[in-house]
Amino acid sequence: MTALVTGSNGFLGSRLVRRLVAEGESAPICLVRPGSNTSRLEKLSQEVPGARIRLRKGDLGTVEGAQRALEEADVVYHLAACLRGAPAEMFLNTVVTSANLLRAAIRRSRPPRFVLVSSFSVYGVADLPAHSVLTEETPIEPTPTRRDLYCQVKWRQEQLFWQYHREHGLDVMVLRPGAIFGPESYGISVRVGLELPGLFLFLGGDNILPLSYVDNCADALALAGTSGFRSGHVINVHDDDLPTCRTFLHRYRREVRDLRVVSLPYAATLALSCANQRYSEVSRGQLPAIFTLYKTRSAWKPMRYDNSRLHQLGWSQRISTEDALGETFQRHREYWRRNR
Q: Do residues 112 and 43 make contact, with C-beta atoms less than 8 angstroms apart?
């Protein structure tokens, strides 16, 4: 079975390629844009004895380009997405490219299986009771335009895959990771709070933080590509032993850098969001509605999480959260000492 990985030179993509090679994939195809930094993949080829990684330069900007990328592929791990930037850029490099990939797939006599990396952000939790358990049965966001741009493009991307699954019978599995972290990802999840100039606004309180260590997440993706799960499955991906946001931030400050923290309880965040939203409406947008009640209830409401279906896939947590945080924070400490 030949695997194609889009977004293969990224944070998660390069770890997935490593895992595929370790699992016996003889020569995964790694789609990279011309001029991309492929140092992670080149380093992997040097570190893993016998690894043969095929770099395929191209992009998904056209259906024809997507067709060339899909040549030989039996399973496609679709990780390519634009996580930040201007709205047009994010939509183009997440939604339009996915549409091109799907259009190219149905032109084949035997389309490949797709494993899409989605996100917890597509869930609609704003109107759920606090401390609800988030599972694969939790409803999808009904009004993504009330959320941030990342939610909107990931929501639309996922809906495209479901459309092609229904209308063309494409074999699709969707994995929705929580907060992916690891040594090469230097930010703090927005679920913990917001880093502002000179201070960190701590908003997560004692909420459970649905962490997914990058290597554990890559394990889940690799399993999904070869599993016997029927097409159409959704699987939430997060580790077992989850810390609270408070525990995470306390350890981060102790082991990485001592941030100046301002804590805002959930009730106070709701009040601030209400005031921001009303003033934005009254001022006709002079003060942007950065915080709204809907966004706040979506991002910082206390929730619980269940990864039972992930275990049914055959996954087990290979790297403990304790070890994962230790390795991650050590690398982060070195990074901030170099760049302060």
A: no
Q: Of 120, 112, 220, which Cα lies nearest the Cα of 171? A: 112
Homologous superfamily of 3-187+210-242+304-339 in CATH?
Answer: NAD(P)-binding Rossmann-like Domain (3.40.50.720)
CA 17 – CA 47 distance, rounded (Å) = 13
* Alpha carbon distance 2, 7 (integer Å): 16
Rounded CA gap, 142 and 12, in Å?
A: 28
Output the CA–CA distances (angstroms, integers) from residue 37 to 8, 152, 269, in the order listed.
11, 28, 40
| pLDDT tens-digit map of 227-263 | 888 889 999 999 999 999 999 999 999 999 999 999 9
Are 299 and 290 in contact, with CB atoms under 8 Å apart? no
The residue assigned the tokens 């946001």 is: 245
- Looking at residue 142, the DSSP 8-state letter turns out to be S
168: left (phi over 0), alpha (psi -120 to 50) or beta: alpha
Beta strand pairing status for 199-202 and 193-196? antiparallel
Length of the chain: 340
User: For the chain, what are the domain ranges?
Assistant: 3-187+210-242+304-339
- Alpha carbons 105 and 303: distance in angstroms, whole number: 37
In this structure, the strands spanning 211-213 and 179-181 are parallel
Q: Given a cut of 90, is residue 186 above it in pLDDT?
A: no
pTM above 0.85, yes or no: yes
- Calpha distance 135→147 (Å, rounded): 20
| Residue 276 pLDDT class (50, 70, 90 cuts) | confident
